[in-house]
Write a structure and sequence with these properties.
There is one protein chain. By secondary structure, the chain is mainly beta. The chain has a domain at 9-65 and 77-112: Immunoglobulin-like, CATH 2.60.40. Helices cover 6% and strands 33% of the residues. The protein is built from one helix and nine strands. The longest helix is centred in the C-terminal third of the chain and has 10 residues, at 141-150. It is elongated, with a radius of gyration of 29 Å. It starts with 13 loop residues before the first strand and ends in a 6-residue tail after the last helix. Residues 1-6 and 8-16 have low confidence and may be disordered.
């Protein structure tokens, strides 16, 4: 099961070069894939989850939280800004059944996986002798058009 990891600048640990990058955990199970993002302080309206051509993308923005006007100097450690994280989904992901929920600053995504069809054995037949070729009949374009109109002829 090939699954690429999140595109994680700085390994998904907070700010990367002054950018806000929420930490993400991904658990891959037999029935589903579960991803969780730490997005405290991010409003639900500032988050978007999209699936396009086998990629799941989470976008959002976290607004800076300033102590207030006129407070003089400020020291800010809590990162803010926009972010985008992308995950390549496996071929058996059921993209029409993905669910997302935001609870206590954690965005949880559940990607169900489609049931894999059971393997079946393909019978191997015997090769036909070199001289035993199937007889085929050749039709001209007029013959093909006639068969389309009246249907194939039945032979004896």
């Amino acid at each position: 099961m090939a699954l690429t990891s999140w595109d994680t600048p700085a390994g998904g640990r907070g700010a990367a070069g002054g950018r806000y990058v929420p930490a993400a955990d991904v658990a891959i199970g037999e029935r589903d894939i579960v991803a969780a993002f730490d997005v405290p302080g991010v409003d639900p309206g500032d988050l978007a989850v999209e699936v396009h051509e086998g990629f799941l993308t989470v976008r959002g923005s976290r607004r800076p939280a300033w102590p207030g006007e006129g407070s003089g100097r400020a020291h800010r450690e809590r990162p803010a800004g926009t972010f985008e994280r992308t995950l390549r989904l496996p071929a058996d992901a059921d993209v029409d059944a993905i669910t997302a929920a935001l609870d206590k600053g954690v965005l949880s995504l559940i990607v169900p996986r489609l049931a894999r069809p059971a393997a079946h054995r393909v019978p191997i037949g015997e090769a036909q002798p070199a001289g035993a070729e199937k007889k085929t009949r050749r039709l001209s374009l007029d013959g093909i058009a006639a068969e389309l109109v009246r249907g194939p002829r039945r032979r004896g």
